[in-house]
DNA sequence: AACCAGGACGTGA
DNA sequence: TCACGTCATGGT
């Protein structure tokens, strides 16, 4: 890859603007001084199987849902000591639905969590393949890549709706590019480094929240002035 | 008070 | 393959 390509330039710009994002947040790391549970510049592998599982659960629950809502649900599950695949499997579905209700799509998501929990137990601490994740009902490309990148530290780029919004607005990609094409474009233009991928996706989300939400005008995006003629 | 969130699936053409 | 409807609660 060449260091002066637009994908890497924008990464450096975003990193300079917002700094390290400390994804994926963990309930274990929450405290009064760190309410979000983020851990900037800590790229270490999750310390327990339950932490890995928590990241996966968060990735599923946040499908088309605000993280703040997911955070509350994770907090509840943690408080009940249920952030564990065997315990999720044992729970009856209506109880699970009640516990996760506030993060939306509770019927679908309870089913997804059940299916994923069984899969996770069968993994026996091995790193899953992307294909096996995608074969699960309820795990699409973004969720699979989030799980691989943030829970298992596998260098695979995560593409989300914000990525499409920002980079199509900057005329760097086309609106009709599909998931795999966008993912491959980023990977072809970046160092093969899970830390870089982790930060980049998190920075994209942070940037989009500031400049690409409904009421805000995309033209105000500072990347536009800097990189689009 | 409509609109949308760190998507994925099912369906019909 | 692909565009479109559906899933659902909670915040703005």
Characterization of the model:
The chain is mainly α and 229 residues long. Helices cover 57% and strands 0% of the residues. It has twelve helices and no strands. The chain has helices at 6-18, 49-61, 67-79, 85-90, 93-100, 106-123, 130-134, 141-151, 161-169, 179-188, 194-211, 222-227. Helix 2 packs antiparallel against helix 8. The longest helix has 18 residues, at 106-123. It starts with 5 loop residues before the first helix and ends with a helix.
Helix content: 55-70%
Unreliable spans are none
Structural class: mainly alpha
Q: What fraction of residues sit in β-strands?
A: under 5%
State the major sheet. none
The coarse silhouette is: globular
**On the 0-100 scale, what is the average pLDDT?**
95
If helices are DSSP runs of H or I spanning 4 or more residues, what is the number of helices? 12
Integer-rounded radius of gyration: 18 Å
Which H/E pattern describes the elements? HHHHHHHHHHHH
- What is the straight-line distance between the termini? 24 Å
Number of strands: 0
